[in-house]
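Field: COMPLEX_INPUT
Field: COMPONENT_COUNT = two
Field: RESIDUE_TOTAL = 540
Field: MODE = joint
Values follow.
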Amino acid sequence: MKAGRVALFAPMAMLIAAFAVAIGGLIWGSFTKGGVGLYADLLSDQVVLRVLWRTVWISALTTLFCVVLAYPLALFLARSKHRNLWLILVISPWLVSIVVRTFGWMVLLGNRGVVNMTLRDLGLIDAPIRMLFTPTAVLIGLTHVFLPFVVIAILSSLLQQDRRLEEASRILGGTRWQTFRRVTLPLSMPGVIGGASLVLLMATGAIVTPLLLGGLRDRMLGTQIYTEIFQVFNFERATAMAVMLLVVALVLVAPLRLLEARIRQTQEGV
Amino acid sequence: MGLSPATRIIAVLLLILLPAPLIIVIGASFSPRAVLAFPPPGFSWRWYLEFLGSTAWITAFAQSAVIAIVAAVVTTIIAVLAALALDRAPARLRSAAETAILAPLLFPHAAIGIAFLGWLSMLHLNGGFIGVLMAHLILCAPFAYRPIAVSLRQIDRSLTEAATILGAEPRQTLTRVVLPLLRPGIAASLLFSFIISFDEVTVTMFLTGPQFTTLPVSIYTHIHDSADPVVAAISSVLILLTAGLVLLIDRLVGLRIFIDIEEEGRHAPA
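Field: COMPLEX_OUTPUT
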């Protein structure tokens, strides 16, 4: 039986090993080929530092927007009788390729795009407002791309809640806001944090959306890596930046993970 | 508990905004002129015909489809075997193995792309079918494993016990009881993996080459140079294909599976 289990798991173990070798090789290679000097170069490069900082704040803001917007939608879905119908509207865009969704925003936000043309036809503007190739466009695009992840995460934890707790709060005289603040929100925090860490992680590693909506000027780490590979052909620098990206993602997500562990502890203690 | 009007307004706005860029793309694809505009200045199938008449696009589409089908079938088989291996395994071993299976979800995609690029170049598999397939198998594994694990956990143990008591061999119990009950999980796993592989671009764009490319990567490259309506036409095909798959998932297993998987993910230690 034991041997049988091992054999059944062997193919999956091979995938896990292949992934571990790839990531391990990346980190190892960045030190053996580039060396510590390469990291020192990168960290003293003003351009790289600016890219690093932009990656952090764009990812953090994207995560914030996603959580703030996803919560009301998840609440609405959790209470709706036609949840399945609305879920189709959330899940279908979620599963369409990021390239296609980003392309949609290019059509919307371009100088001759839908938004500018509509504003012009309404007589509100004379010259097009520059929206594409700005950090704002990147924020809008990334928020749109990652929003469904957070909606599903929060919805899942809302659906698990015992509705009688909310009823009890209302019967005991709590207002709608108090009930939300003291009962619904704390109980859904695992979903909020789970969704937020996922978005934070994916936003730091995004390439396509920041490249197509932000252009080559307002780079993020992902787009910088892409440029190093395809335009500068500097594989060593790209490797070291990829390792930096791993560290940034880890550092950004760590506080959320700690918070999650603490919340789990307190809620299990109740 | 009732929802506040603000919650409702945000929710409804988002339910309109989430699919909006995709609707715009579909609309723009019918433009008779070489300008991307919405609403289109007329109606024509011109760009669809151009797509169908282009060997490069059709090849990319076919290659994407082949990769996605192979990746979906292979990862699903690997995931079923792994789930059976971990079923009733000691809790600690099981959670360690599950963390390893889900590991690709914890790394930023740009870094994964560079990691695979380095590793596959060393094996001289870069720019070809095998390299992309290997990357997709690893990226799909978490999405293939979770629905099957959820399905397996939902199986009523008394059914397998009944089969054993009635004299079924372990193999018979597996093929006559367990596998048929796993059908929803297997269906979800196949569809998820197909979608993940068919849409993937951030990692894949590092691994394609002149001989082998996928549709989303070609779309990306094309948009980067010029965003003409032929991209809108191809994107529309992708959007409709994805929407069709979502409806299929709804029919076969119910959209609830997306929420169950999320719940399962939160219980697994990360």
